[in-house]
Amino acid sequence: MPLAFRSNCSSLCVLGALLVVPACLSSQQLASGEQVSLASALPDAPQPLADGIQSSIQAAPTLAPSSQSSSSAQAPAPDADADKQKRAQAEEQLKAQEKQRVMGVMATFNTTQNQNALPLSPGQKFRLFFRSETDPWPFMLAAVVSGIGQADDSYPEWHQGLKGYGRRFAGAYSDAFIGNFFGNAVLPVLLKEDPRYYQKGTGSAKKRFLWAAASTVWCKRDNGRWGPNYANVGGNLIGSAIARIYYPVSERTVSDTITDGLTVSAEGIVGAEVIEFWPDMVRHHNRKKAEKLAREAAQSASQSAAPEAPTK
Length: 312
Fold this sequence. Notes:
By secondary structure, the protein is mostly helical. The chain contains nine helices and six strands; from the N terminus they run αααβββαααβαββαα. It has helices spanning 3-41, 51-74, 76-97, 122-133, 136-152, 161-191, 205-214, 230-243, 254-305; strands at 101-102, 106-107, 111-112, 197-198, 218-220, 226-228.
C-alpha cells in the first residue's frame, strides 16, 4: 500500500475518533443524569423499627403456639377423668349384679334392673363370664341335668354307673361353659354387644313376657342401641359344634348340632322368664305372709280384748 494512502487513512481515523469520543462522553453524562433524576424520584426505603417494637413482633409468633400447645395438652384431661369415672361407676354396678340370686341359689349375675346401665369393658365381660361359671350354681345345674340323663340312659355309649354319670356331668358342664364363653365373652367383645339381660320389671304381664322371650335374639349394644343378639345365638351354636368332639359318634351330625344349639337358646328363654317374674313372686309371697300375720295379730287382739266369762 502507498505511504500517501496510509497517512490519509490514519488522518481519517484520528478525525473520526475526535468526532465520536465527545458524543460518547455527552451520552454517558446524559445517562448518568437520568439515573440520578430517577433515583431521586423513587420513594425512600422503609426504615427499621425500634428495637422494642421489633422484639415484641418477633416474640409474638412464638407465644401463640406455646399457648395453643398448652391448651391442647390440657384439653384431654377432662375426657380422661370422665372415662375413669364411668369405668368406676360400671365397676360398682357390676359388683352389685354379682350378688343377685333367684331363690337364694340361682345366680343371675348377667342380669341388671338398670335400663341405663353403663356398658361393660372387654375385661369386665370376661370377668362376668368367669364369675358366673365358677359359681356353685352351674355345677349344681350340671349335676341335676346329668342325673336326669343317667335316669333316661341318654347316650348309651357312656353306659351307667359312676363312670357314665361322670361323663354326663362333664358333658353338661362343658356345654354350658363353652357356650357361655363364646356367647357371653368372646362374641360380645368382638361384636360390641352387652351380654346382660335387662330386666323390664314394669308394664303388663304380656309385654314383660314378650320382652323376656325376645332377649334371646335381641340385645342392647355398647353404643346404647338395640339390635339382633348375634352373640347369644352364635355362641350356643358354636358351643354345640365344639361339643361334638366329646359326644358319641352317633351325635356328631349337623342336625344334632343345630338342634342342640337352638335347644339351649330356648332354655335361655325359660331362664329369662324366671328372672323377669321372680321379683313379682317374692312380692306376692311377702304380701301374703304380711296379710297372714296381720290376721293372726287381729285375732289375738280380739281374743285378748274379749271379756272373760264369769266363774262360778
